[in-house]
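Running log. JK asked me to keep both predictions on one page so they can be read side by side. First protein, sequence followed by its tokens:
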Amino acid sequence: MMAMSNSLSLLVRGLSTSAARPAAMVKAPIQVFGVAGRYASALYSAASKEKKLDTVEKELNALQGVIDSNVKLQDLLKNPIVTRAEKKSVVLGVLKEQKASPIVTNLVDLLGDNNRLGVVGGVAKTFSDIMSAHRGEVICEVTTAKDLDKATMKSLEDALKMFLKKGETLKLNTKVDPALIGGMVVNVGDRFVDMSTASKINRMAALLRQPL
């Protein structure tokens, strides 16, 4: 635990744009994991101290948007022959065009030096999750076999809001997966409910395979 704390403190120091001795870390409102989680937590602490949370979130998402829409850039970042210095230079060039803040520039600097530019997407996603918790948003992901009509969507939102605590707001993300056949799969925070037709069929098939 102490080693992890020291590691995060060093990350925060590397991300900070102030020359002054850094204060204690600002703890993220939710626990996150993995390499992307460590960078996102350090980024949250550094951005909190400089009151740049919204700016950093916007810039990270913009950077990831550029990467997602540029196949050549994706290939370059994955190419083991391209040096980490070259990869870092290209991504820093993107940030320069976007007039990104020093905090996000420092993040890419650190990721580039540590050969971790491949986790930019993970850092952006995790940072957005942290920011949602910071704003009191409860992220809910609903997957259905087909698009929901307005009436069904309204009923779903009303039902999900019943699980919210005071001060929380619902952030509903929907997607379509025809493989579900019917019904829906709901993820709310750490809760998972599978009400899909495909799941019911799989359970029935498993029962039928059992010996009599």
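And the second, directly underneath as requested:
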Amino acid sequence: MGEEWRLKMGETALPEGAVDALVMDYLAREGYADAASAFAEEARQPPPHDSTHLEMRGSIIQHLNDGQCEAAAAKLNELDPELLDRNQSVAFALKLQNLIELVRGGDLAGSLEYAHEEVVPLCEKEPEYLEQLEQVMTLLAFPDKDSPVGHLLDEAERRRVASFVNRSIVTSLGDASDSKLVELFRLLESAQEKGSVQDPSIPHVTNLISAEPLVDMELGPVNRSRS
């Protein structure tokens, strides 16, 4: 079966431009405005259908990655004045991250005042937010990356919030939050899991970077994640 699979894969041809279209969809959906523009020109792909919207999302993402939450919120209001009212999760995420930035800057008094005036009222409306606020307030006592909540000060937390806000914007337009490329990877993973149960000799991809198929007759379906 494994050899048959290889032969069929060798005979399969992708439509011209299919991979470029997947890459363009990913760049546009993730808000990489400059990269999408450059890629469209190099790959001779049509530019994103709404370049202005993409550039504004890119600006919001960059502000959040730079820790400029209020600037991001202002740009978001410019893009969609009603989104923060419709989506309390986004409003809370922005305010909570702004509180983290105040703690990062060592502004104790400003952090307490901002938490009381801007974040606590949202927690009163949505009690499930309270635990997240408590974690951030712990940073006031332990403002160190080695503390139990130190991960909140990592650059990765800024990127996580930026990604969440971007997906929320995209979803508000009626589009899927994930790119077609991400959906394709999920489909690949699901298909490989099902295929390995039916026939362990079917090659499977364990490294999505190289996309090199691997056949290991000793691996059972449960251990397919081993590289």
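Observation for JK regarding the second prediction: DSSP finds eleven helices and two strands in the chain.
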